[in-house]
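User: Second chain of the day. Same drill as before.
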Amino acid sequence: MKTFNYRAWMLTLFVAFASMVMAQKIQTVDTEGNPVGYASVINADNGKVIGTTDLEGFLDNVGGARSISITHVAFSPMVVNMGSLPSDGRIVLQDAKFELPEVTVKKKEFVYVQTYYRVFQMFDDTLMYYRAGITDNTYNIRKKTISTQHEHFSKAKYAVLKVVLGGLVGGVLDDYSNLSTKNLCLGNNDGKLTLEKEGANRQRVLYNDTLVGFIVDDNTDHLRRLSIDNKAYRKLYHADNDSEKKAKKREKRDEQHMNEVSTRYMVYQIDDDGKCRPEDFVSKQIRFDYDKYSRVLKKDEHHRLWVEVYSTDRAYVDKKELKEKIRENKVKMDYQNLMEFEKNHGIPPLPENAQKSLQELVSK
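Assistant: Same format as last time:
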């Protein structure tokens, strides 16, 4: 008669459980069950970035993490114990609540919208560059044009990196914080983009009949969310519009940027007429992830760059009131003031481990 080997049984059980956790797929959804794409997933125990959920909210593997931290520009951050997840791996995110002042339409020339933005550049798991700032956006209602003023604070692990990114990329980063008059939420389709209804409050965004994103309306909080697979969209767009010379340059760049993921996510308030206007902007995130061969380290290095933008003030103003508004909202550009600004305006904080890395970078 065979004896029961308790240790072997426990070992088998542990291995089976560990394998299940390591390979567990997750999906981020909102309270209505709509998939939420482009949520950042971080190992809550060691602070390492695991990845980003795809357009449909899926991430195939959490890499053995026992608990994960999830952040998203449109939702409240949360920490999830992997052992407590249902078998389908669904994680329900709760809407972030931003205290934006209500605006009443008045016969005035301008709309003033203040945005706060922060930028992170990481090589593998090392935070290399940080930039945060405030943009004063002025929308001319009659001309339908936007002008901006930028102020920012930045830090980098190496002085040369700060110079390069500040000088060459700084203008591009500032542009990300600008309001836009050209996007699907505002009714301006870009090129061959079309919308296709899918359910009561969800639309598919198509380019030449190829899915590149979704629009989801949250009628409870009167919000419209746009998620775009930027890499897929740009690939289709450039195939239609690039010259042969431009196409070759882009192919060369794509060869250097391996496994690239590029995404956009925007949130607007929905007006009573079901439309969005520039002053209805709430938040935005743009992400770039790719592998690039490092000649110094002689290995592939993973690059991550993401930008988060939040609306923090808005008002209909005339010229005099506009100047007063910009003067009132002026903030001294240093790390402590910007952290206080985030707290006062309900901007979701960074995960604790990312905040620690940032503090170390700022203290140098």
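DSSP finds seven helices and 17 strands in the chain.

User: Great, on to the next one.
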